[in-house]
Amino acid sequence: MSRSFQIKHHDRCLIGLELDSRVVGWLHRWGLYGVLKLSRLPLDCQLVTALIERWRPETRTFFLVAGEATITLADISVLTGLPICGRPIIFTGSLSSLSRRQFVDYCLRKFGWAPSDSEIMKGSFQFRPLADRIQQTHITDDHSDEDALMYARAIALMLVTGVMFPGTGGDRASTQFIELFDDEDSIGDYSWGSSVLALLYREMSLAAVGERVTLGGFMRVLLVNHLIVVFFSI
Fold first, then answer.
1. DSSP alpha helices (H): ranges in 39-126?
2. Distance between terminal CA atoms of the chain?
3. Is the dihedral of CA 117, 120, 121, 125 positive or negative?
4. β-pair partners for 55
5. Residues 166, 9 contacting (CB under 8 angstroms)
6. Distance separating alpha carbons of residues 194 and 83, to the nearest angstrom
7. Minimal CA–CA distance to 177: which of 112, 123, 118?
8. How many whole angstroms separate alpha carbon 110 and alpha carbon 178?
9. pTM of the model
10. For residues 141 and 37, what is the distance between their CA atoms, to the nearest angstrom?
11. pLDDT (tens digit per residue) in 120-162
């Protein structure tokens, strides 16, 4: 395998953020703060390519010099802090009954941002306006708790769609993800970690058999896990 894989990720807006303690508290509560910290690590496409060359889809393991190795749910939990037990991530279409105007109003209330009418019709939104909302907002002591929660939701939506589950189809994400943030008390109840691992396995396996050149998924977890394996093999 001589090609180099490209990795989709949309996290530039998260670099250098100075977050109010209330925002950090919500991200911790939802199990997403570790993802925010990992999102700031540089991505090494050449290392990812080298790992995929050693990935065997039939056994879900890497064939390394030190022996066989893989990444497990326990690894995901330790490296990211994501919950690996809980509710499965299933899109129920709970917001599908809303009109476009109602959907926009809903997003503005929840995130302080909303997709355009045309994006709602297409069922996907561009990352840039959401990234602008995150970068241009600075929550301080003068902001209300509701403002802090709204901003935390916007960051969480970017983490989920742009870091944990980025697709390979460009700079867009499905509007279906928005329904997962309806109730702030249940966001942390999802088994985020198991879905991250499932997508990671899928992307690596498709790439290993030549069906992928551009990769989605949370590849930073793969890199950190590999470095730990190598360190303890020395």
1. 45-53, 73-80, 100-111, 117-122
2. 27
3. positive
4. 62
5. yes
6. 8
7. 123
8. 9
9. 0.91
10. 23
11. 888 889 899 999 999 999 999 999 999 999 999 999 999 999 9
